[in-house]
Specification:
InterPro entries: Glyco_transf_N (IPR058980). The chain has three helices and three strands; from the N terminus they run βαβαβα. It is of the alpha/beta class. β2 (about 40-50), α2 and β3 form a beta-alpha-beta unit. It is globular.
Length: about 110
């Protein structure tokens, strides 16, 4: 007879973290990602190409060295023009672009 209770598994839990791409959201999510990783979670940290570039400029290439297996960074488009360096400062444009492009971009990231 099959048991209806879940069977224990040795599979590492996986968390997909996607901070809202406005100022003030990325660093707290990054801290959360590192804390979860330290507790045994496989972490995929998904952020926008724009924020990826900002972190690289602010912290250097080492900003994305999680230092361990099981911590992965992915980037998605925020739907804003890459030529506009202040695009994310227009909160309404950011909301609309995120609403329009976010779901498909996240589905693409979570399937990998």
């Amino acid at each position: 007879m099959a048991s209806s209770e879940p069977q224990p598994t040795n599979k590492q839990p996986h968390v997909l973290l996607i901070p809202y791409p406005a100022q003030g959201h990325v660093n707290p999510f990054l801290k959360l990602a590192k804390a979860l990783h330290a507790r045994g979670f496989h972490v995929t940290f998904v952020h926008t190409e724009y924020n990826h570039g900002r972190l690289l400029r602010a912290r250097g290439a080492g900003a994305f060295d999680a230092g361990a297996e099981g911590f992965r960074f992915e980037t998605i488009s925020d739907g804003l023009p890459p030529s506009d360096l202040d695009a994310t400062q227009d909160i309404w444009a950011l909301c609309e672009a995120t609403r329009r492009t976010g779901p498909a971009a996240v589905r693409g990231s979570s399937s990998g």
